[in-house]
Design a protein that fits this description.
This protein is an alpha/beta fold. It has helices spanning 19-28, 37-50, 75-87, 97-107, 128-132, 151-165, 184-193, 245-255, 278-288, 291-309, 378-389, 417-424, 436-449; strands spanning 90-94, 115-119, 136-140, 171-175, 198-201, 209-210, 213-214, 221-225, 238-242, 315-317, 325-326, 332-336, 395-396, 411-413, 425-428. 34% of the residues lie in helices and 13% in strands. The structure holds pyridoxal-5'-phosphate.
């Protein structure tokens, strides 16, 4: 196959053209600070979005999880039930999704020595803020359907932590990996039983829905990210969905250096400089004008990929496991059967990452050799290299936190699911910059690689 002329990258948010208008407005009105009209409007727009009802299809409550089947067959009653809770939600725009996780933990009173349960299969930003606070992450593995936190294993972990430490974990961080909704109602049922608050890390899941309700609105707090590679971008930014006005004020207080109401600078608490800039919020407002369109495109590509991969033996496309689990397909992912032979797999793991650009795409720390005790299978790495030579970027799945050296001393409750997926999985180009033609080219290239 002929190499792709222009590199097809994994995922980048795409500008609508409206961003510059809001950014210019900020300059023209001299609002070049981490607060202002764009920040307020962006928060309002996000709020309207996250409480919105699914408009595509009616929600099938027949299969609604047992834990809340009181409203079976009556989606309207279901919505009325969550209406008040949803409408009391408040959004705080922040400088990153990581900051949002950090502030959610602070708002829940997490401190030195506390334990926080966190999904192991995730990006490090879900769990790192736990350690910023001197608290200890306890990792819980995933179930096979959604790749997210296994509610049964969550229960095992909670019970064991109570037995061992005599104390309940202080919070639970559930993640919507690659945009796929977790079985959040089942997770909430376990969490509620033990009265432990849930933080939903929906950094990758903006616009994903579970039984019609937007992910990030089920637990006490919901985390959003507007980094450059997420569903929408503010160049860098995030937001925290708070349960009410009171919590919003607490989060705002800590996000703005914890200043007390004196006419001079008086501090009783340690705060942070985490508010979103009015310039970045302008970009966010422009992005909000195309959010629905972009989600639709991510889903469209997923359908296309799913259709093509259904014809390829040995490769599974990760799709919604049931009708009411509605992923935004932030990244499209596949898993390769270990038996599948990929061209060049005898010669993989010869090179390390040498691009020093910081962030996820490059590294500052170079290594001598690429092997660790837990790495993607040779056929997965061979496929990544094969696609790379055709100018297509792909990436391994997140390596589970319980396999990361920086968390080697952390407790983990595992079932082998995330480790197995990490070894077999690959993320493929997704999002508004990827064309139908690109997706078909990619699946064709994969067919050739395994011939
Ligand atoms: C991107 C991401 C974050 C952090 O968001 P930033 O805005 O990059 O700080 C947190 N959790 C997950 C799962 C993510 O993918």
């Amino acid at each position: 196959m002929e190499k792709r002329e222009k590199r097809v990258i994994l995922c980048l948010a795409h500008m609508s053209g409206n961003e510059i208008r809001y950014v210019n407005e900020a300059f023209e009105t001299n609002w070049v600070v981490p607060l202002g009209p764009n920040v307020n409007a962006f928060e309002d727009e996000l709020h309207a979005f996250v409480i919105s009802k699914a408009n595509s299809k009616t929600v099938d409550t027949n299969n609604y999880p047992q834990c809340i089947n009181a409203h079976n067959n009556d989606p309207e009653a279901l919505w009325k039930d969550s209406f008040e809770e949803l409408h009391s939600k408040k959004i705080v725009a922040l400088s990153s999704g990581t900051a949002a996780v950090h502030l959610a933990l602070i708002a829940l009173g997490v401190g030195y020595g506390d334990e926080v349960i966190c999904q192991s299969f995730t990006f490090c930003a879900s769990s790192n803020p736990v350690t910023y606070l001197g608290a200890k992450p306890v990792f819980v593995d995933s179930e096979k359907d959604t790749w997210n936190m296994d509610p049964d294993l969550l229960r095992t972990a909670i019970e064991d932590r109570i037995k061992v430490t005599g104390k309940k974990p202080k919070a639970i961080i559930a993640v919507y990996l690659y945009g796929m909704p977790a079985k959040i109602k089942n997770i909430m049922a376990v969490a509620n039983e033990y009265d432990i608050p849930v933080i939903e890390d929906a950094a990758e899941g903006l616009g994903s829905r579970y039984y019609g309700q937007v992910c990030g609105t089920f637990g006490r707090f919901g985390v959003l990210s507007f980094n450059g590679n997420k569903m929408i971008t503010t160049s860098g930014g995030g937001a925290l969905i708070c349960p009410n006005e009171e919590m919003r004020n607490l989060v705002m207080f800590y996000a703005t250096q914890a200043r007390e109401g004196y006419p001079y600078y008086q501090h009783e608490k340690i705060g942070y400089n985490y508010r979103l800039s009015n310039i970045c919020a302008g970009i966010g407002r422009g992005q909000m004008t195309v959010l629905d369109e972009h989600i639709a495109w991510h889903k469209h590509l997923a359908q296309l990929y799913a259709n093509e991969f259904s014809k390829i033996e040995g490769i599974d496309f990760h799709s919604n496991p049931s009708e009411n689990i509605d992923s935004n397909y932030w990244l499209n992912t596949i898993t390769l059967s270990p038996e599948l032979h990929v061209s060049g797999q005898e010669n993989v793991y010869k090179s390390t990452v040498k691009t020093a650009v910081g962030g996820a795409a490059g590294v500052i720390h170079f290594v001598d050799q690429p092997h660790t005790d837990c790495e993607p299978n040779a056929n997965v790495e061979a496929l990544r290299v094969y696609l790379d030579k055709l100018n297509i970027e792909s990436r391994p799945l997140w390596k589970p936190m319980h396999k990361q050296p920086c968390y080697k001393d952390s407790k983990a409750y595992v079932n082998g699911v995330s480790e197995g997926l990490f070894k077999r999985g690959l993320c493929l180009p997704s999002g508004p910059l990827v064309t139908e033609d690109d997706a078909l080219y990619i699946t064709e290239a994969i067919k050739q690689a395994i011939r």
